[in-house]
Structure formats: structure tokens, C-alpha cells
Amino acid sequence: MDLQPQPTNSPASSAVKTGLIIGLVMLSINFIVYFIDYSYLVAGWYGFFVVVLFFGQVIYFGKQYRKEIGGFMDFGTAFQFSLVTLIVSGFISTLGNMLLYFVIHPGLPELLVETQLENMVAMLDSFGAGDSLSGDQIDEMREEMASNFTPLGQFKAFGISLIIYAILSLILGAIFKKRDKSNDY
Asked: How far apart are CA 122 and CA 114, in angstroms?
């Protein structure tokens, strides 16, 4: 029986390591931004920056992993690597946010909700629709925003993220896959 050598770094183990790195980088950036000015955490430009940086890192590490295993990767391996990386880094980010919101600065969620609400009303004012909001509508928006910063809200957001991560992993798997054409007959 001829046993083929197994890769020393399986997709799952490499992805866990990569997810830890990305999660810690993103968490560090989040804490740095918090210490600079907490209001940036709910700014639109910051959200865009975080998404671009997050996926840029996943793509970079995915291509690095493909090089490590010989330059070729099938879709299944690429999908597994992407999914595990996204889940691990997302979990670390969620835990870090919960640490920030509930241990380090328990009053932060309230401040973020007010800042987010002010940003939304200012945006609506710029479109000329700010006066159309009633006090009840603003209170309802405030309650909904506040529910996102509760522990249950954080776990719900992570659950929704898992679905998004699965879809993104399909896309990333298609990006990372590369077949060895020398094996074609």
C-alpha cells in the first residue's frame, strides 16, 4: 500500500493560525481607534477601512498558504481555509468587542449609540429628511441600535456573520483555487 505524504500544514490548522493573526490585528486596530476617539468606531469611513483591510489580509494569507503547499490548491481546500480563517478571526473580534463594551468601558455602547444616532440624523438632515423623524421614531432607532451592543446582540451579529462568511468563503475559494495543468492528459 503506497501512502502519500500528508501536507504538514492542513488547511484547518493553517487557517486557525491565520485567523488568530488576522483577528488580533483587527482587534488591535479597534483598540487603537478606541483610544484615539471612540466615535470613529461607528464612522462609515472606519467601517469601510476595516472591511477592506480584513479581506485584504485574508486574500494575502490565502495566497501565501497556496504557495506553501506547492502553488496549487483545489476549491475544497481553498474553501475550508477561507471559512476557518473567517470564523476564527470573527470570533476573536467578537470576544474583543465584548471585552471592550462590557469590561473595559461599560458605558461605551451608550456613547456609540448616541454618536451613531447623531450621524444618522445629520445624514438625513443633509438630504432634507431629518425633520420628518418623530421623537418616537428616534427612540425606536435608539433602542434597536442599543440592542446591537448587548451580549445577545453581539452573538446574533456573529451568527449572521457565519452565514456571510460561508458565502464569502465560496468566493474566496474560487479566487484561491489553482489547479496543476501539468497533470492534464
From this structure: 12
